[in-house]
Amino acid sequence: MLPIFENWLLRLPVKTANYSSKKEFPMAAKKLSPNLTLVLITIVFMGAYFIPFDSPRVSGAVQEAFMMLSEYAREHVLLCLVPAMFIAGAITVFLNQQAVIHLLGPSARKTAAYGVASVSGTILAVCSCTVLPLFKGIYKKGAGLGPAVSFLYSGPAINILAIVLSYKVFGWQLGLARMVGAVLFSIVIGLLMQLIFRKEDEARLADQRMFTYQRDEDEKTLGQMSLFMASMVGILVFINWADSDGGNAVWDMIHQAKYWITGGFSLVLIYSLARWFKKDELKTWVSATRDFSLQILPYLFGGVLAAGFLLGRPGHDALISTTWVASLVGGNSLISNFIAAVSGAFMYFATLTEVPILQGLLGAGMGKGPALALMLAGPSLSLPSMLVIHSELGFRKTFTYVVLVVLLSAFAGKLFGIII
Prior knowledge:
Helix content: over 70%
Order of helices and strands: HHHHHHHHHHHHHHHHHHHHH
Strand content: under 5%
């Protein structure tokens, strides 16, 4: 059945000038090699044969895996991922490629490119998974690897409400360190990735087959595209606007009115679509959104299941006990900061959930240095996001990105622990 489905998928019509080759849809165009298929089958068999599913710890972890997937589906897919997918599809289909390359390409002014990318998270209240389709959209459209990775890190790391809550719950020192570290890391990691893979990225952007944009007379004006994109970003931001629990009166007032505000942005979106877009363009947009979903969702759901099986939901132990994790990250040794950074990189944090998780870990004896290391690595990475990033960037770039995030987070935690 799988080969039949893949052949059917490759024959689907794609009516757009923005992407036209299998190269643009790696998940649909590539099949697993026989050796890799055999390895995967062997891993599944070994797991089924040796894992003691009758053990209370293991059976509880299996339940946690599906509970976490259920929670993720209910709380994040419809309100976060679906709007993000449509934004990513619009970026791919409608956004002027030359404008993206001019602003975020390798030859763009670094101050402008990294300045825009590094503060993007203050607007987008997204988690490490919701930012992925947006990252893929701008990367496919011609953004340089460095600015795209900077955006990938900053999107979930610099959520303004998370920063405010960090100030309120953990004090100004940890809140300030998180804010400064997140902005600085997004720039440093992006610059290092661009430097390490400069030749490959220049070759990617030089291959014009990947970017088949052609200007036509029906192209939307800057004002039209700005209003169209702003309406979708507004829906994504305000429909997910969280309550500060009395921490900020203005923030809570916006939260109470978020459905009215979202409704206003929805009306603007409907007006834009009816006024400026043709039927064929809308079909192309939906097709691009569908293809992003096919590429991303299998990795996300698989990663959420794995993360739930290993670490569980906040306040619920799975295979790895949070008490055991907390015992490893006490004090401010380099090892404890490194363990905190690695743990944060593999855990899945929905937007703002890192705050109550850290409260529990600090109460269990976690040091403030490791707490910062986890806050800097956790929101921007997770096992599900690693799988999706790997599907887009490949093993070497993904591995390098993860290593940079973990090492810089551990170093920052160690330095913060020494200073305070």
